[in-house]
Amino acid sequence: MAIQTDPGLVPYQILDAGGNLVGKMPGISAERMLSLYRSMQVGRVFSNKIIALQRQGRATTFGSLVGQEATAVGLAAPMQPQDWLATSYREIASLIVKGVPIPTLAYSFRGFTPENWPAETHCLPVQIVIGTQMLHAVGLAMAAKIAGDPAVAVGVCGDGATSEGDFNEALNFAGVFQAPVVLVVQNNGWAISVPRSKQSAASTFAARGEGFGVPARLVDGNDILAVYDTMSKAIENARAGNGPTLVETLTYRIGAHTTADDPTRYRDAAEVEAWRARDPIARFQKFLIARDLLAEQRVQQLIEEVEEEINEAVRIAESMPPMAPDSFFDYVAATLSPRQQAQRADLLRYINQVIQ
Amino acid sequence: MQMTMIEALNSALALELERDRRVVVFGEDIGANGGVFRVTEHLQNKFGEERVFDTPLAESGIIGTSIGMAIYGLRPIVEIQFAGFLFVCMNQLVSQAARIRFRSAGAYTCPLVVRAPYGGGVRTPELHSDSLEAVFLQTPGFKIVVPSNPYDAKGLLASAVEDPDPVLFLENIKLYRSFRAETPTEHYSIPLGKANVVQEGTDVSIFAYGAMVNVALEAAKQAQQETGTSVEVIDLRTVWPLDEDAIAASVEKTGRAIIVHEAPRAGGIGAEITAVINERCFYSLLKPIGRVTGYDTPYPVPGQEDYYLPTPAKVMTALREIMEL
Q1: What is the pLDDT of residue A192?
Q2: ipTM of the complex
């Protein structure tokens, strides 16, 4: 991968909005492409399902990822098991692709901390403070380099996060230490109600790379093949010892920021409709059907299979016992101080005597 | 061997780097320069730039990347050049480092030591002398260690590095070179969370930490000589979590308590110790608890700082009052 600090203004594309091949096909098998397609469906169905559960009072606040499936899936799919992923709350589909079981995620959206978080997937649990996880990703990558391990880290944030100091510090540390990290800006056009244009006067976020000496790529974030290809190259480039890459994916948040948000207050329905026409799943589906890799009549069946998988995951999550009411003491530190032990005993007395 | 606190800390860091391949040391100016106070002197030469390195000038970047490294399995020991700059990285410390274990239900942990010089009396510019320890009391998941002498500094730092959770290690600037003390050259550790009875006494207990331990000892000596008062001086060593058993045991014995710290009084360690005494041994108290602390003002400029800091004379005033002398 040649060093390219200014990615220019034309996003990298392999499939156009109509699903036509306009770039060079990456080396990817038909089976792999179908698996990416299915993962995108899983992401969308999961997102819609949790939002539906939230409306019924069965799930907590959730941020829709609809419209961003190509980026979420494409950024995680090329990662190896030893690679680390630090995301925002918008990339649940990335965690699924990296191996976090869907019932575990569904359980977390019931309002509990899964006590069986799969550490071996190397996915950090979602953290909320915008942009903060980008530094964690760089630190993980620096550690892999220090340890001499062939592991890469991927950090993901949104367009709003680029205004945070931590995002810029992450890019700077990544560059200075030539950390094996890929920093992804999932530019979905909106930071809750603040549009992209008010986040930065720069024409692209990818251009930020140049100021930090970090090569950057600007990618059509609704083109799964372009995202997958870019991420594969950036990840393997990092693994080969050639340092970090900044990737900006251009996509769009079709849904509300979260279940607590009403986007009709601040954005034009026409803009949303224009982006619906560039839907990442529909685009890839057209391509797969045109290439006879997917039969048109199979699509509905596949969606139903995915829905059944998600429903089953939710059933599992809902059948899991709630966390013990005092278990928030369990993971404060390796050992509880005498004061914390006494407080826990107090709480248990309250629960036993007053509540029950 | 007679060591200053700087030398004791340097010895501890060198031993930890030697003992454990996972240990890395980094921060601003800690490499070739050996740190602005020379705590990390020669470490880069001995252990290489891969394990002992300078970072860009960005406190949040230092703590944020150290969190990633700790999760990965390394044992980062990072330096924030002055505790007054900790506010720059509060999000990474409070919202992140202290919550990694909690957020992941133990799947990931954050064994991280954050070293920061603090404390007044050496004529530093603004925000180089502030004592911020109490700010972190509402950060469950953090331990806060403040040594008062070279021997403790070395042993406590060893324990901080071995601790499976994040530790904030505050080093008093004035103590760095003010005296030497016998300190073993080999590795040893002093447990976190345990206070040290520096001087036993029967009339009144003084609780202090960092540079205030010597201030308390001086006042105690003067009180003994001038008034015959027997003062027990307790060095907290770890200010969070507090060694509540040691606090209660001492107050149950003496019936009187004075707390001394440099930090402002409001919501400070002294307030917390007062609450502990109220909860655990209120009826042992013969007199109201005394506090000798910094004032509820910003830390003043060098020309005024001697008025701000607790002194043996200020502690003596509190002792006379509590002893009705």
Answers
A1: 94
A2: 0.96
